[in-house]
Design brief:
The chain contains ten helices and no strands. The longest helix is centred in the N-terminal third of the chain and has 28 residues. The protein has 195 residues and is mainly α.
């Protein structure tokens, strides 16, 4: 009798976990990131989350601007990201790279954003190149920054831009112009002029 009762309790607990997992995924899909995160954290108290659920959790942290937690969580699933669809990979790599960027980890954000470029749709590439240009400028990789800002500008030209994209394009153009003057291939130093 006790075994039957224990089996019933275990089945009920598993059903509850299954329902909670469904709820967490539903919250995530509805962009209710705080609710999704709370539910994922509750689930983790009794079970180990799959790599995909951890990736969802990492995106929740990113969307809630909890960048250090996003980095930690997405780092845990880095080795399995290549098994997901290109769209999923793009989301995870971008969230991971952007989290590094927001914390000023410019060296670390570049490889993540480069991975995102390789799998994201063309419509997202301009924004990622813009971020890469900015990160490269911050670490004094000026030739790379010039290349990234140039790529961003040419891609912005081909896509529908909202207010943010228009502002980024304008800022990217200003940065590119400045970088071409100060670090471009035809730059002439004052010392060269005096020689």
């Amino acid at each position: 009798m006790a075994l039957l009762l224990l089996g019933s309790c275990i089945a009920r607990a598993q059903l509850t976990e299954t329902e909670m997992l469904g709820r967490a995924i539903e919250y995530f899909g509805s962009q209710k990131y705080q609710e999704a995160l709370i539910t994922f954290n509750q689930l983790e108290q009794t079970r180990r989350l799959s790599a995909r659920m951890l990736a969802y959790k990492g995106v929740c942290y990113y969307r809630l601007e909890m960048y250090a937690d996003a980095i930690t969580t997405l780092s845990q699933v880095a080795s399995s990201m290549s098994s997901y669809s290109p769209h999923e990979q793009a989301v995870y790599y971008y969230a991971w790279g952007e989290s590094h960027f927001q914390l000023g980890h410019y060296f670390e954000c570049i490889p993540c954003l480069k991975e995102a470029i390789g799998v994201c749709p063309v419509s997202d590439k301009a924004e990622i190149y813009y971020r890469l240009g900015f990160a490269s400028t911050m670490i004094s990789e000026y030739e790379d920054a010039i290349e990234y800002f140039s790529s961003a500008d040419s891609l912005y030209e081909k896509c529908v831009m909202g207010r943010t994209e228009k502002a980024h394009r304008e800022q990217g153009r200003r940065m590119l112009h400045h970088l071409l003057i100060t670090h471009g291939p035809r730059r002439v130093d004052v010392a060269d002029k005096e020689a």
